[in-house]
Design goal:
Elements (H helix, E strand, L loop, with lengths): L1 H20 L10 H7 L2 E11 L8 E11 L7 E5 L16 E6 L9 E3 L7 E3 L4 H6 L6 E2 L3
Parallel strand pairs: 3-5
Antiparallel strand pairs: 1-2, 1-4, 2-3, 2-7, 4-6
């Protein structure tokens, strides 16, 4: 009985904390075309180094940009991606050495060399899972750097 009461209190607290910690601010894109049309920045990049956020998730990474389709001039360099968020929000996690295709909405505040990536709205795909997206991206807009 005592364990049941503890469990109920625990679940109520988790539910309350979860509802206050993270409110989605939109819907994730349904496919590559929608993701591209909503994004302000679109690129592929290789993860050079991964850092853990304050909750221990590998959600912050130094990235070397390989190709880009949309984005500011400073995107042509190595950047830091930050997908960290509260404990109940989804985060994108990264692995060193892997290449990702990343779409970032234009309404997130960005600073040169640092990109904040929303774990719910922004589309982040490991390159082996991005074949359909890569076919859908406009070839005429692709800029290539080093691999």
């Amino acid at each position: 009985m005592r364990n049941n009461v503890f469990m109920i209190v625990f679940l109520v607290c988790i539910g309350t904390c979860a509802s206050e910690a993270c409110e989605p601010i939109g819907e994730p894109p349904k496919d590559a075309r929608e993701a591209f049309s909503f994004a302000g920045i679109v690129f592929t990049g290789k993860i050079e180094k991964v850092y853990r956020d304050k909750l221990g998730n590998p959600s912050i990474a130094d990235v070397r940009v390989i190709n880009y389709w949309k984005g500011p001039e400073w995107l042509r360099q190595s950047i830091r991606l930050d997908s960290s968020s509260g404990g109940t929000c989804p985060v994108h996690t990264f692995e060193e050495g892997k290449i990702y295709l990343i779409y970032v909405r234009p309404d997130l505040p960005q600073q040169q060399g640092n990109l904040k990536v929303d774990g719910f709205i922004d589309r982040v795909l490991e390159i082996s899972k991005a074949k359909e997206d890569l076919r859908a991206l406009p070839v005429s807009l692709k800029h290539e750097f080093s691999k």
